[in-house]
Design goal:
With 425 residues, the chain is mostly helical. Helices cover 75% and strands 0% of the residues. The longest helix has 44 residues.
């Protein structure tokens, strides 16, 4: 605030007592004060005009359709190496999930082995053996003991969520149909977006919601092709229970993925995998001992069963190790959109291995999902706090590459310019 002090002449000048010369001298300060006042009002007017321009620009920016930003991008700015890398890595994750599904299907159909907790226990044990020793040799607050001392209860809940998500979705196949599982498993995406909004403060634009709808349309096309081909298999003995298990598992997957995105972008991948391996081993081991002792005792071990268990463990271990890398360069929502093609890869393998009936709807659904995925990544999401946070040593990629440039633009628009008293801006 600029404080202007005006000098008062404070003297009543009588015409018969003051000469013309003294009167002129007394008027001089008034002329100086008038110039000062005019200068100050000029600066204040300039500041007001700039603030109005800033508010107008901000309102126009906020009211612009998200498709405006899509139109302003050139094709070479959309189809970048970053997008290509995200698509390839995402489809690699889908192939790994496909591998877990195929090995589990062979174990169940050809060898009557239904032990989802045993399979999960093997994966969590591998994570424990690899990453917990790495955390043990870290220094200071990154050490295993320090992490457990400060955040043990958070990772305990994360371990429970991850274990039960895997178990509930696999268990649902015993009660409901394949079609229901495929459709309801997509519930993870809206839950994930909601959790990202409230927990990670991620802000989505209309184009992201449209892209998600397109991807879900592709998933629906795939399910329709399954129904047309007569692959609506499943016992259907208790459809309501099965559907509830799928929805619960999808919600827990969303919780696990949001925690994973926060951890790998703000802490480290090793910490996340180490803690999931530690608590996942404990809880999956307890649940396996309670629920699957009889099933494990019935297994007739041979080289084929051992090979299938090994293949499942390799695919699942690779999935857990690669997913944080993809989440780091994209987001948990983007990763789950790309994973919608996992069932398609399973079907493609089924055409070769199980003589499935081919349908062009599968190709169409794959194209629709990829188009939706590209559209989702064409406009970056916005995290308000990310632009204001400085880079911190030892933190793994606190904001993705696509978000970083966009956050700078948002910061420039939402931060008013400072005006200093001498009139310079």
């Amino acid at each position: 605030m600029i404080l202007i002090v005006l000098k008062s002449r404070g003297t009543v000048m009588m015409a018969d007592m003051v000469s013309t010369e003294s009167a002129l001298e007394s008027e001089a300060p008034v002329l100086v004060d008038s110039q000062l006042i005019n200068g100050v009002f000029t600066v204040l007017l300039q500041k007001r005009m700039e603030m109005n321009e800033h508010i107008t620009d901000r309102d126009e920016h906020e009211n612009k359709s998200c498709f405006y930003y899509l139109r302003t991008y050139k094709l070479k700015e959309i189809f970048t190496w970053h997008l290509f890398k995200t698509i390839v890595l995402g489809q690699g994750l889908s192939v790994l999930i496909c591998g877990t599904g195929i090995t589990s299907q062979y174990l169940a159909n050809d060898f009557s082995v239904n032990t989802p907790m045993l399979q999960s226990f093997i994966n969590y044990t591998l994570l424990f053996l690899v990453y917990v020793p790495l955390l043990s040799f870290r220094r200071e607050d990154k050490n295993l003991l320090s992490i457990l001392k400060k955040k043990w209860w958070k990772y305990l809940l994360l371990g429970i969520a991850d274990v039960e998500a895997n178990y509930m979705v696999v268990k649902a196949y015993q009660y409901t149909t394949l079609t229901s599982v495929q459709l309801l498993d997509c519930f993870v995406i809206p839950v994930l977006m909601a959790l990202s909004w409230f927990i990670l403060k991620t802000r989505f634009r209309i184009v992201h919601y449209v892209a998600v709808c397109i991807c879900l349309l592709g998933a629906g096309t795939m399910v329709g092709a399954d129904v047309e081909a007569g692959r609506n298999q499943g016992s259907g003995t208790n459809i309501l229970l099965g559907d509830v298990l799928v929805l619960g598992g999808a919600a827990l997957y969303a919780v696990s993925n949001v925690c994973q995105e926060y951890t790998v972008k703000n802490l480290s991948q090793e910490e996340f995998l180490g803690m999931v391996g530690l608590f996942g081993t404990v809880f999956s081991g307890i649940q396996m001992a309670i629920l699957e002792c009889t099933e494990i005792a019935k297994i007739t071990w041979n080289w084929q069963v051992a090979l299938l268990f090994t293949g499942y463990a390799i695919c699942m271990f690779g999935l857990y190790n690669c997913m944080p890398l993809v989440i780091k360069i994209a987001s948990a929502t983007a990763v789950n959109l790309s994973l919608l093609t996992a069932d398609l890869f399973s079907l493609f393998f089924g055409f070769v291995l199980l003589q499935y009936t081919f349908s062009m709807l599968y190709i169409l659904s794959f194209v629709i999902i990829i188009v939706g995925f590209i559209l989702y990544n064409s406009v970056p999401t916005f995290t308000p706090e990310a632009a204001a946070q400085p880079a911190v040593d030892g933190v793994d990629n606190p904001v993705s590459e696509t978000e970083e440039t966009y956050n700078k633009e948002e910061s420039a628009i939402h931060s008013p310019q400072k005006v200093i008293p001498d009139g310079t801006v």
